[in-house]
Amino acid sequence: MTTAAPARPTTRADHVTEVVPLAALDGRPLTVVHVQGRHPPTRGPVLLVHGAGVRAELFRPPLPRTLVDALLDDGWDVWMLNWRASIDLDPVPWTLDQAAAYDHPAAVRHVLGATGADRLKAVVHCQGSASFTIAAVSGLMPEVDTVVSNAVSLHPVVPRLSTLKIGRLSPLIGRVLPYVSPGWGDRPAGPLSRALVGLVRATHWECDNTVCRMVSFTYGSGWPALWSHANLDDATHDWVRGEFAEVPFTFFAQMDRSIRAGHLVPVSALPGLPESYVAEAPRTDARFVFLAGEDNHCFLPESQRRSHAFFARHRPGRDTLHRIRGYGHLDVVFGRDAWRDTHPLILEELAR
Fold first, then answer.
1. Distance (Å, rounded) from C-alpha 241 to C-alpha 171?
2. 13 pLDDT above the threshold of 90
3. Burial (CB count within 10 angstroms: exposed 0-12, middle 13-18, buried 19+), residue 274
4. What is the Cα–Cα distance from 236 to 61, expressed in whole angstroms?
5. Strands (E), 188-297
């Protein structure tokens, strides 16, 4: 028997939200979003970090109960970061190295300063996870004691078709466009973007939402790639139309090199970052929890298995891997039944 989701108003009606300007360590403007619920927090701060070409609101879809609600009800002090990949900020070329060196350490320092806490936990997704993990293993955030990482961290492993797209098609498009945007499905930005949307419409027939179809073309090899349609309710499937925008080809170029290498590789020498992210033991005491949706068509579950194995070689028994049946990439966060199937696991690991 399926238990009905708790009957509550749309999540934002319950929240007090403050958007705070923040400067990255290189001066790039960011924001952190502080969310408070109906009761003061009884636990410490937790930082939520989104992926590429989305924004902090990724964690607050139009569901009766979101991950943010679950965290607030469990007593956590919730902060969400808009790092330089956020569509709420002016689009810029960016790399994972820049986010790791400049964005995440600045956000951690700000949240600790604002709350007076000396430790912090994080729930990080996709390229927010990859860049946050780089910062952690580089020793840049010693105050972070728990990291729940979804989808990918240090070892990107993708389907074969994705390897071909990112290695062959992406450089071709990148010669004429600085970025690609799934949002073009509803709002094309010129003849080249219209041509790309036409290609996607001709090759992706999985639904009538052209932004959803563009997301699958941009980020993976599935139909769809980032979620199962069965795991999304109609409101969330429509909501994604406004939640995806520009992703620069600087990111895809770094990901291509990393996929070929079998692990994340730096593309520039930046302060505090090592020459290799996997040559030495992680320089962090944070316990890592690796989440891998079994049906992920963007980054295969093998991605998180390899990262967990890397950590386990250096500190056996400390970190955890969870492979989640019936879920893929983003439905782990905002699936219609995530409140029942995945959010309790995240709460359990944060409370350990």
1. 26
2. no
3. middle
4. 6
5. 247-248, 287-293
How deeply is 267 buried, as exposed, middle or buried, from its count of CB atoms within 10 A (0-12, 13-18, 19+)?
middle
Q: First-to-last CA distance in the chain?
A: 30
| CA distances in angstroms from 308 to 41, 98, 160, listed in the order given | 31, 24, 22
Structure tokens at 344: 């309790």
Residues 298-333: pLDDT tens digits?
999 999 999 999 999 999 999 999 999 999 999 999
- Tokens 């925008």 belong to 245
Nearest residue to 319 via CA among 184, 165, 147, 193: 147
* 3-state DSSP assignment of residue 86: coil
pLDDT of 238-288, one tens digit each?
Answer: 999 999 999 999 999 999 999 999 999 999 899 999 999 999 999 999 999
Q: What structural domains and CATH numbers belong to the chain?
A: 11-351 (3.40.50.1820)
38 CB-contact burial (10 Å; exposed 0-12 / middle 13-18 / buried 19+)? exposed
Average per-residue pLDDT in the chain?
95
Nearest by Cα to 99 from 30, 170, 20, 21: 30
Query: CB neighbours (10 Å) of residue 238?
Result: 14
**Residue 27: Cβ within 10 Å count:** 7
Nearest to 88 by CA among 153, 12, 22: 22
Q: Which residue has the tokens 């690991």?
A: 349
Q: What are the beta bridge partners of residue 323?
A: 292
Residue with tokens 């996997």: 278
Token code pair at residue 330: 């983003």
